[in-house]
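User: Before I run my own analysis I want an independent prediction to cross-check against. Here's the chain; please return only the structure tokens and, at the end, one sentence I can use as a sanity check.
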Amino acid sequence: MCQKSSPCTYARVRSLPSVRLFSFLALAFASFLRAEDAFDHFREGERLLSLQQAQQAIGPLHKAAQQKPAHPKAALYLGMAYLQTGRYTQAIQWLQNPPVHSQEYAHLYAYNLGNVYFVQHRYEEAQHAYEQALALKHDYPPALLNRANTAMKRQAYAHALADYKKYVSQNPTASQHYEVQRMIAALEQWLQRKEAEEARRKEAEEARRKEAEEARRKEAEEARRKEAEEARRKEAEEARRKEAEFEALKRALRLKQAEDARTLSTGSEDTVPYQEERNLE
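Assistant: Structure tokens:
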């Protein structure tokens, strides 16, 4: 057994840094192996996904995403695999929070998240995701095209037409160029019809408004005419009433004058002889 300060103890003390270094190297090597495994799993999942074998790609891609969370495309491809197999909740889970070091592919995460929302008929959220993808990479045609498709689903046809036109102007040789041009032509015809219908509707509405206004004017005019006629009738009636009162008053005065005259005449016949008799006395 080694004694204190013996060569054995010295050797043990001197060996401790070597042990730590070995442990560090072992951990580093294990991490390297895991990283290599993650890349191997990713390459296998990527290969299967390119062969349209999304279900088989989920396993290796999931391992790659778990073993190397910072891998820029593992979560992206895993989300795409879940999307293609109809497992939308899992797809959203992996696509809505891209790794910090995946800025180069951030627009793809947003774009595929929009695709998940689109197939679920969540068009408002899909539009927001496509707009986010275009904000991250403004010249990304698939996001522009799908934003136009989303606008069609939302019946925002003017916005859809604008995006389709922008898409074909930016991608004149795109494989979908012919179909998009047909959609543009159909939308333009539809919008022209709607504009013409709207113009006719506004014209008819204006005609109805003017007709109603004319009817109200005539009604007001008729009311004023009747009011004036009623005022004239009342005025004439009042004049007749006053005339009748005046005639009645005149008749009353004539009667009184006649009565006074009769009274005066009767009084003279009685008084004169009496006076004469007084004078004779």
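Sanity check: Residues 177-280 form the longest helix (104 residues).
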